[in-house]
Amino acid sequence: MKSLKTLMDLNGRVALITGGAGHLGAAMCESLAELGASLVIVDIMESSCNQLSQALKETYQIDVLPLVMDLSDEQALLDLPKKVLSQFGKLDILVNNAALVGSNDLKGWAVPFDQQSADTWRLALEVNLTVPFILVQAFADALRTSKHGSVINIGSIYGVVGPDPALYEGTNMGNPSAYAASKGGLIQFTRWLATSLAPDIRVNAISPGGVWRNQPDSFTQKYIEKTPLKRMTTEEDIKGAVAYLASDLSAYVTGQHLLLDGGWTSW
Ligand SMILES: NC(=O)c1ccc[n+]([C@@H]2O[C@H](COP(=O)([O-])OP(=O)(O)OC[C@H]3O[C@@H](n4cnc5c(N)ncnc54)[C@H](O)[C@@H]3O)[C@@H](O)[C@H]2O)c1
Question: What are the structural domains, with CATH classification, of the chain?
């Protein structure tokens, strides 16, 4: 029987993380780098993407390819697989993490429903849901050839339950409807992919709860009150979940949706 250390070893595997330079994305990159994977970090934020790539390369002595691009740019998206495969010749792990998130400062986004715009809804559906569709399709052959192909889609508690408006009272925070719709779609797309791409590629989703980022006190206190584990999510919480689903630790797991939410959705 293989040891746990062998099962979680990602040496020789290549992982692509969209939105890899973001808060949770960087923790995912760190987790996969720590286990020995080579990384492709895709993000629109140029300096954080390059800095993170350099830091991980030096710390973990791994190959890292930073790809600075806008995933909503169709041509750039179509060119992405070529760039990855010409550098590494393979892809074993795909993490669809990039998203328009609730804190994005976009017109018609985190505002009351009657002010939410159809244009921003379309952009959110594009980045949060259509981009994962295009990437999984584009990399399916490579993931199949890998024999360890694993796709991880990053959902959200708001792809599962509706927001509690009381949490947001007295703050300028909002909860966009397109965010919920896109994440709900991504979670269900995960199940569709899992059965359609089996037995060659495993496909699972992780849905974090609200991550603590200096939200107003009233929000944080109410949020914690509603969470059985009595705290908000941290970036570190994602590391183990990604390590598990990316590696052979979860070789018999597909079509699952792991709620990383301190019990928020368990009441
Ligand atoms: N923060 C939370 O409370 C929370 C809760 C549940 C789920 N999530 C999910 O976790 C994931 C990561 O969120 P985060 O909190 O780290 O947010 P974040 O904004 O820090 O990270 C998202 C990353 O995606 C990148 N990105 C967005 N649009 C892009 C585009 N068009 N092209 C290229 N890159 C693009 C951003 O530059 C950013 O680095 C998201 O899928 C989010 O929905 C977050």
Answer: 4-111+118-162+176-210+238-260 (3.40.50.720)
